[in-house]
Amino acid sequence: MQHCLNTKMLCRQCIGEPYLSALVATEGQKVVCDYCGSFMKALELNAICDYVDAAFQRHFTRARMEMNSYEWAAHKNPESSFEFEPNGEQTVYAILNAADVSEAIAEDIQQVLQDRYSDFEAAQIGDTTEYDSELHYEELQPDGREWQETWESFERSLKTEARFFSARALAVLNSVFSGIDDMKTRHGGSLVVEGGPGTPYEHLYRARAFQSEGKLRSALLRPDKELGPPPSTFAASGRMNAKGIAVFYGATDPGTAVAEVRPPVGCEVAIGRFRVVRSLRLLDLTALAGVTAEGSVFDPEYANTLSRMMFLRSLSRRMARPVMPDDQDSDYLPTQAIADFLATDAVTSLDGIIFPSVQVAGGKQNVVLFHKASLVEKLVIPSGAETDVDTYDMDDDGPYRNYKVVWRLKSEEKTKDGEQGESTNLFDTPFEPPSAAYDDMDFGSGREVTLKITPKDLEVRIVNAVVFDTEDYKVDHLSYTPAAHSDF
Fold it and tell me: What is the rounded distance in angstroms from the CA atom of residue 407 to the CA atom of residue 397?
């Protein structure tokens, strides 16, 4: 009986699971199938059982068949209707659904595997062995533990071993992010999304807190310079950039932009709405929580794929976790390395990263645009215009807050050569000039303009109070006298 089952031929047509069916097509030979009578590529059932066994070892586990103490108590309670039912599916049906075969084929596979694992001594004492017909099997849930350990090792390496030119770090980043542009979420969305005109990321908001009236007025006059990315020489390290690498941090709404700069009470916050003027490719870390993995339990690599999927689901939380100011130099190293790696187009062409806000709850988003995609178009003040910035106005009741940027335009005149006059020095204003030198705007560097802002895209908020969302814990106090030690 066992020998007859082992040598029965099963064709690819009788197997609905695509990966296993393709294996039969590749490795089988054309014979008459013992189950459907067709003449086509087929394998012996014994070989099919090898694949089924390997898949079950990787992706399934035996379900608990006995009641625990709580379930037993509920079962014995005359007032309870509880009936114990093991998790998962009975062996035959677990095989049937995994391989997508008929019940007759699943029964034969189960019988072959049960005979393989049968044990005389176990049978003598009433123990069941693998693939017993009465057992239930349930699918294992991937935990991503190996990937978590690999990532933690990567973080330690950056902080304590090799910060630059680390082949080990490069290998980890390649393995984590390889193929991200092909990954999908459970709703069919992509991890790489489009930004720019006509998309949800057509406008990005950037805020800056001011405690000086002069600096605020300079920023309102030239928001392209004072609210845009700083020059490289002034670029401080951040969550997604190392010191000296100028990037653009923006939020998808003005409230989040204000919260991200953590302004002190009493200061004025200038908020600029930057328009993204060209199409961008952005990696959406907020979508990682819903990433899914397509594959087959019969594919030996699928277990690792599932483990990687579980790790990726937690990666956005890791990259956006709060970091205390004293720890920023070391704790920002992993996220800076990730941003640098992705900015080089090592796995796919990207212009920036969407990541969740740490400062604001409710799924608010921030966007970092890499240096190559962070150039702000120069705000050109008309030639010969006189400029002014007002922060107050007057009425019968006295002064009141009113922010205005004024361009007093020169009447059109032509030079003696018949050409329009050239623009005057844009910094020749009665206010404190922008902090960056003119050449540091990096125009002419070859970068394409990505962002644009005008004086109409500005607002100012005065911070009157700050509200904290906290978890509150009472501190207990315990006072006791330890018992004296015995002499014996």
Answer: 27
Tens digit of pLDDT for each residue in 105-147?
999 999 999 999 887 676 666 678 899 989 999 988 877 777 8
- Tokens matching residue 143: 């935990």
Backbone angles phi, psi at 400, to 5 degrees: -145, 155
| Cα–Cα distance measured from residue 245 to residue 236, given in angstroms and rounded to the nearest whole number | 8
* pLDDT value for 202: 96
Provide the whole-model pTM: 0.73
Residue bearing tokens 């709405």: 273
Question: CA 121 to CA 488: how far, in whole Å?
Answer: 50
β-pairing verdict for 29-32 and 9-11: unpaired
Provide the H-helix boundaries in 45-179: 45-59, 69-76, 91-99, 103-117, 120-124, 145-160, 167-177
- Rounded CA-CA distance 169/165 in Å is 8
**8 A C-beta contact, residue 270 and residue 208:** yes
Q: Can you tell me whether residue 272 is helix, strand or coil?
A: strand
Give the H/E segment covering residue 276: strand 268-276
Q: What is the DSSP string of 366-425?
A: EEEE-GGG-PBPP--PPTT-EEEEEEEEEETTEEEEEEEEEEEPPPP-B-TTSSBPPPPP
Say if residues 250 and 191 touch (Cβ distance below 8 Å): no
CB 238 within 8 A of CB 169: no
Cβ within 8 Å of residue 423, ≥6 positions away:
380, 381, 382, 383, 384
Q: Which two tokens stand for residue 202?
A: 């057509």
Residue 362 CA from chain centroid, whole number: 16
The answer to whether 65 and 136 are in contact (CB under 8 A) is: yes
Q: How, if at all, do strands 268-276 and 458-462 pair? A: antiparallel
